[in-house]
Hints:
Structural class of chain B: alpha/beta
Oligomer: heterodimer
Order of helices and strands of chain A: HEHHHHEE
Low-confidence stretches of chain A: none
Shape of chain A: globular
Number of helices of chain A: 5
Strand content of chain B: 15-25%
Largest sheet of chain B: 8 strands, mixed
Helix content of chain A: 25-40%
Strand order of the largest sheet of chain A: 1-3-2
Number of strands of chain B: 10
Amino acid sequence: MKVAVVGKGGSGKTTTAAVLARTLARQGVTTLALDCDTNPNLGLSLGFGEERTEGLLAVRDAVDEGEEEHPSTAAELIERFGIDGPDGVRFAVVSAIQNPEPGCP
Amino acid sequence: MRVAFVGKGGAGKSSIAGVFARLVARNGGSVVALDSDPMPGLAYSLGVPSTDAGLPDEAVEEYEDSEGRRRYRLPAGMDAASTVERYATVSPDGVRLLQLGKARGAKGENWRSHQAYQLLVDGLSDGDWSVVGDLPGGTRQPFFGWGRFAQTVFVVAEPTPASMLSARRLARLAEHSTAPRVVAIASKTRAPSDAALIEERTGLHVVAAVPYDDAQQEADRRGLALLDLDSDTPLVCAVSALVSSLTVEEPVR
């Protein structure tokens, strides 16, 4: 199952996504949580704490910086840039805006 | 004054910006409120019907510059102020609201409307107009174009880790912005120490502490502007004090 949670700011997307991910994981489903917000806070709701949430390298930034010399499969990216969290949820940040840059992320 | 409100989604940007704009207008200034969030918000807090419409295509005309590039300008006889008067929605207290076209599906064509919006923001003269911008939540847009008009950027932050983390990111991005002043507004505070906490965790000077306000929740539920529900609430009092402090520093002409 692949689920995306969308909605207006402040309506509860991140909280809903985190509870959904952890509930699925508790039921034994192998679960990957992806934070696709350029202002990523899902790590906090999943229970990673502020320091790890703030420090987690975004997958896209890493790819842009050429850390990946060859195109990776999705599984390789998740393996390399994801981290394991409470209830066994695998978690990765897709794209964070850390520095000003023109254009759309 | 030219101010922009930024912050995490749900932090209270639109609620505060709407009250702010109307109170500045009550003080006698000409105020244009800019909603550049693709999701609706500011219209509700100003108390005008929400629409998906941006500026119409005919608000600007297309021309080619000397090098053959496609450009846009206001039509002959129109300037930024007259364009605002023609197309803005007027709220109670006389705030002129302009909305960037909202998301109308995957292939919405908003390019001309966006050009018109930028021309207006750039063209309104500082002395005659106060500009209050409500920017989208998160870090995507604030300093990359839509917020460049701002002389003061208000980073709205709740005393929660997620909101303060977002504010820290915005503070970092703001270091590279053109805005001379980037400060924080503590939002939905419940304890006297909340403002100090936000100051400590964001590194930004907190210019106002806006308390959590049950009346705002009620206004949201009913789709009303807070000022049209009740003019004497904690949020209104805090924003009123902020407006007064700013108008002392930066008189509205």
